[in-house]
Amino acid sequence: MAKFIFVAGGVMSGIGKGVATSSIGAILKSRNFNVTAIKIDQYINVDAGTLNPVEHGEVFVTEDGAECDQDVGNYERFLDRDIYSANYITTGRVYQAVINRERNLGYGGKTVEVVPHIPEEVIRRITQVAKESKADFVMIEIGGTVGEYQNILFLEAARMMRLRRPKDILFVLVSYLPIPKMIGEMKTKPTQYAVRTLNSAGIQPDIILARAEVPIDEPRKRKISVACSVSREDVISAPDVESIYEVPINFEEENLGNRILSKFKMRSRGRRDLSQWKSLVKTIKGANSAVKIGVVGKYFETGDFVLSDSYLSVIEAIKHAAWAHNRKPDITWLNSDHYEKFPRAVSELKNYDGIIVPGGFGARGVEGKILTAKFCRENNIPYLGLCYGMQIATIEFARNVCGIKDAHSTEVKQKTPHPVIDILPEQKTNLQRKDFGATMRLGTYPCKLKAGTAAFRAYKNSDFKKEVKNGDIVISERHRHRYELNNEYKKTLEDKGLVMSGVNPDRDLVEIIELPKHKFYLGTQFHPEFKSRPLRPHPLFSAFVKACLL
Ligand code: GLN
Description:
Elements: E1 3-9, H1 17-29, E2 35-41, H2 53-56, E3 60-61, E4 67-68, H3 70-79, E5 88-90, H4 91-103, H5 114-133, E6 137-142, H6 152-164, E7 169-176, H7 189-200, E8 207-212, H8 218-228, E9 235-239, H9 247-253, H10 256-263, H11 275-286, E10 290-297, E11 301-302, E12 305-306, H12 312-324, E13 328-335, H13 336-341, E14 354-357, H14 366-378, E15 383-386, H15 388-400, E16 407-409, E17 418-423, H16 425-432, E18 441-449, H17 454-460, E19 467-469, E20 472-481, E21 483-485, H18 490-495, E22 499-504, E23 509-514, E24 521-524, H19 539-548
Parallel strand pairs: 1-6, 1-7, 2-5, 2-6, 7-8, 8-9, 10-13, 10-14, 14-15, 15-24, 16-17
Antiparallel strand pairs: 3-4, 11-12, 17-21, 18-20, 18-22, 19-20, 22-23, 23-24
Helix pairs in contact: 1-3, 1-9, 4-5, 5-6, 12-19, 14-15, 17-19
The structure holds glutamine.
């Protein structure tokens, strides 16, 4: 029988609930338990696929093609396991399922009501994940902050579940303790309010994670303990850290793993092993020289602030690869719009060891990205193009090497005479029907690598999962796109030296392109960043960083 750990947030959003959830999972995993995690998002959107990344951060894609919240990526990285679509729950998904069931007479003529039918569907989904994953522990992160109107039905589901199986359920509140400048003291009151609010939803937290700039001290632990009816040992210090991968270690220093197990009346399964995390953190802190990577994209700015959340997995993948080469990742956000307005500014790219053009959509900033690809190609600067970044590199090559001046993608210029990047036939129908939700080419597809290429070498020399048959290597990677390299231009591009180093064997779609006479110039139609893990960096990112150091 699985145990369930609900994680909710208090006081404010953005305090690292996802990392806390993942880290609790990681410390249980380090005791040889099978752990999985579920993300609950409160929005009506059925999935994150239709959300603007500036508003909601990255859209993370699972093996089975679900477009999820970025926290799912954190779960995969911390738990080092694949998380599937079923582990992602939104208000939209829940209501959709309940309404469909009602339409199919699944409620046998009963009045279908928000309570209990909505929480029941939530519980059904959670228990289903437990059953299918055979997990010992299921972590469930409830999005939003307690006291919000929108997540109340999820808290209600947690409360109902606890009523049914009190011994199997634990509640963790991740709260925030501000240190206002003018007071100069850590304040516990907002956390006390958050607990009261949770209490009014019928839930008493078992453990409080005290997020703050600095570790929480003894008197404040005691204060929270008394005011919130949580024992002092269960108020866990969770200060800001240099790297999120320190969090599991910090939690263990606070004895969190043992506290959780004792509440479930369980014992550790074998010896606890945090050695991999410890050596990773040692590497992170030990690396002193940097590798300077420029990321040329457009989803950065909101008001006066710069956000990098839209590219979270890209950032993580760069970090993993940099650490594997004992370097500190030094990432700079470069706005492609800017190069469009000031084309000569692109020469600043020579100040970087390497450039990444990540995924993207639409016309804005495209010419700036094309200039970026050109500058990197001509100046032997390592270039890694991810999805749109690969399409951009292809357009640039067609225009400036093959002399097809008006080469373009039909995504940007529908009537271009030279659609070197063109819409996939099935996607045309989707767009005509305005059927946008979850209709892209999503999830995992195989890719056969061409021997002798940089891509082939990178995968071959790594422990990345692959099928090797008669010297051929087939890997599989995750996708999220509607457009593709147009095979009608394949020969022209190849004749001028562009190498198609990875192809989907079933549909002959180009998956990887590269240039041989270059330090590193490679683009992927898929998103390798989704499969990079801290302890197992992605081979292409690793090869890219290696080239950056040449
Ligand atoms: N906009 C491009 C397409 O749909 C690339 C998508 C992406 O970068 N994820 O094919």
